[in-house]
UniProtKB/TrEMBL annotation:
Keywords: Oxidoreductase. PROSITE patterns: ADH_SHORT. Belongs to the short-chain dehydrogenases/reductases (SDR) family. Signal peptide: none annotated. It comes from Caldilinea aerophila (strain DSM 14535 / JCM 11387 / NBRC 104270 / STL-6-O1). InterPro entries: NAD(P)-bd_dom_sf, Sc_DH/Rdtase_CS, SDR_fam. GO terms for molecular function: oxidoreductase activity. The keyword Oxidoreductase applies. GO terms for cellular component: membrane. This is Putative oxidoreductase. It comes from the Bacteria.
Amino acid sequence: MQTVFITGVSEGIGAALALHYAAQGARVLGVSRRPRPATLDGSLTPEDYACIDLGEPDAPTAVQTFLQRRQVHTLDILVHNAAAGWYGSPTQQSSASIDQLLQLNLYAPIALTHMLLPRLRAAHGVIAFISSVHSALPTPDFALYTATKAGVDGFARALRIEERGKVDVLVVWPGPTRTSMHAKSGVPPERIHNKHYASPEAVAAAVAVAIQRRRSCAVGAGNTLLRWAALRLEAPLQTMMIAWARRRSLRKAGGE
């Protein structure tokens, strides 16, 4: 039986992944800052769920205690899914909010990876970082979020080389997904286009395939092309295209 540990498991992509792996017969453990929702009843037991806010500095220690209490000595799959965004100019974001976003999106996955590597090596496991297609793009109004995802990408690339032959490391780059993240980030309702976004289940299915193949991937043909172009276009052209797209979006939303 595989043992799978997922962060940000209470909703969205994390909850869909928990359901997928539970259906495969895996033991699923997870953490989220919210109390365990009833929607996870078929995915993981109350004992295998911990209410831990990974945006707090002592979170890695709390996760270590939780896994020791649950007698988890090896891990087959670790999915770093927990993340948050913040919409607007960085000049409008408080220092406390900046610190918490860096803690949750960047420090927590690095610290948890450091702590859990022995368990993953014991099973020749897989680490999957859920990043964003925007990590390779200049993304106005999401500057700090983009920076944290770019940092995760850099850490994962180096770790993949360091752990070769011991643990497989991969990154999955989704585009906008139909979750509550945009609203929680403060995105104006008129700029949230859920009907055009991928469902959490579709993204989770792509993540599961990437883990099975032990290979990084972008989710969907459009995002694959977007990431390919972002990594190859010259920076001035890339910035010009993003600026044009932003102006167009604002005009449609009745902005500037």
